[in-house]
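Morning F.,

Quick status update on the modeling queue. The single chain you submitted on Monday has been processed. Sequence for confirmation:
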Amino acid sequence: MIDYEEELRKFEPIQDVADAEGAIYNREMTDVLDLLKEMMKEKRSKNIRRK
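Structure tokens below.
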């Protein structure tokens, strides 16, 4: 019979999965930051045109 608690204690995540997860999260953050930067550029250019 399998001792699930023992198996969980022995569990070690695969490094490739951890690396991929980090790359995915970092990429998403970059995308959000890029969008925010673009929005700020547009806002500034509209403010400059009004003056």
